Amino acid sequence: MPRWADRLRESGREPDPRFTFANERTFLAWVRTALALVAAGVGLQALVPALAVPGLREAVAVALVLLGAALSVGAFGRWWRAERAIREGRPLPPATFAPVLAYGVGLLAVVVVVLLVAR
Amino acid sequence: MTSPPEPPAQAPPGGPAWAADPPPGVQNERTALAWVRACLAYLACVLLAVRLLAARPVPAVLVLAAGSAVAAGLLTGSRRRYRRRDRSLAAGAPVLAPAPVAVLASATALLGLAAAALILLG
Question: How far is CA B110 from the centre of its chain?
């Protein structure tokens, strides 16, 4: 196990392995979401013709892609904090990202559809 | 705020054994499968991103090679980890594996940043 994870490994007590597995699968689910965002941004740029407002397609594509990158970093942080909470017997940290993500992506999707139709 | 995780259930006294939580080996298998899905998603994202480099074959091949190496490495590591974790479960040893988690998180963040650069630089 890597040295930078010693702080994690030495905190609290060794949990039931099922919790470690579940936490890891949750991280993987978040990373798949992040990758879907990156793919959406790249797909928008590479496969969709320019939108009504010049440069807007690039802006939305970059926003999606950076959101995906930020989400993957946040997913690691969430995994770390959850593992510590499990080991120390504390409540799990709340997940504030999911509704923000859902509303944000939904809004972006509506914007893109409107601009595609408006050409 | 969610409450602390509860200890796994025991089979009800006198009841069938399958009424208890499934054994940890099932979770190990589910986790390994989740890694496969994640690596495939990463690879698919790399392939799509390479489309942005359609006009520049040398960087495209480099990105494809690097992305494939990351995916292959994570997949191989996941298989080894699955077998090692089965032994750890039998021995009561820890199953925590932070390294691949960090690798995948960084690789995805890097892919996102690279894609942003490619989009902005045309």
Answer: 16
